[in-house]
Amino acid sequence: MVSAGELLLLAGLVLAVAATGGFSQTNHLVTAPQTTQFLEIGSNFKATCMIINTTEVTADDLYWKLSATTVSKELYTKLNESAISVTIPVTGVQSEWLFCMAKKGNSPYFFLHAGKFVYGVLLKKGYPPGKPENVSCVAVQEKTTISTTFRCKWATVGRQTSDVPTKYTLNVVVI
């Protein structure tokens, strides 16, 4: 059985270690961009991976994975000793993770903090909407007053994906 005093001591140690950065969650890899809007299928996506706050790895140790597949080095560009970029074609409608990863280092630090040498960005993909056609709107009119609530419909154009957030702006003029 653990006494209240031992629990208090343990809590104090945990707080002291956390205050000195002992439980730091800082990654040593970061990507830009860190988030994406929907990417248009058929386009290219470029991401950059940067090494921060460590000398355990260099750009030569970095590689990219798209879901579970390692991306071909032919698609990489080494920017400097601490950054690489990749340009990949956007294919398929399923969202995928693009991970920047570091090859396993030889140091004990790398072994103990391997999770800090991985960073990912979720690629959400789809087809954007085309310009709507055959737009028609109906509003209810009672005597000389037209309701501010009305209903519109239109024909969609192109291969719009339902997951792609879409905002339409309708300009209304009363004649």
List keywords for this structure.
11 strands; 2 domains; Immunoglobulin-like; mainly beta; 5-stranded mixed sheet; 12% helix; single chain; disordered N terminus
Describe the structure.
By secondary structure, the chain is mainly beta. It folds into two domains: 14-126, Immunoglobulins (Immunoglobulin-like, Sandwich), CATH 2.60.40.10; 129-175, no CATH class. It contains two helices and eleven strands, in the order H-E-E-E-E-E-E-E-E-H-E-E-E. It has helices at 4-19, 108-112; strands spanning 29-32, 38-40, 44-51, 62-66, 69-70, 76-80, 83-89, 96-102, 118-126, 133-142, 145-155. The strands form three sheets. Strands 2-9-8-4-5 form a five-stranded mixed β-sheet, with no helix packed on it. The chain has a four-stranded antiparallel β-sheet with strand order 1-3-7-6, with no helix packed on it. Strands 10-11 form a two-stranded antiparallel ribbon. The longest helix is centred in the N-terminal third of the chain and has 16 residues, at 4-19. Residues 1-24 have low confidence and may be disordered. InterPro entries: FN3_sf, Ig-like_dom_sf, Ig-like_fold, IgC2-like_lig-bd. Keywords: Immunoglobulin domain, Signal. Residues 38-107 form the Immunoglobulin C2-set-like ligand-binding domain.
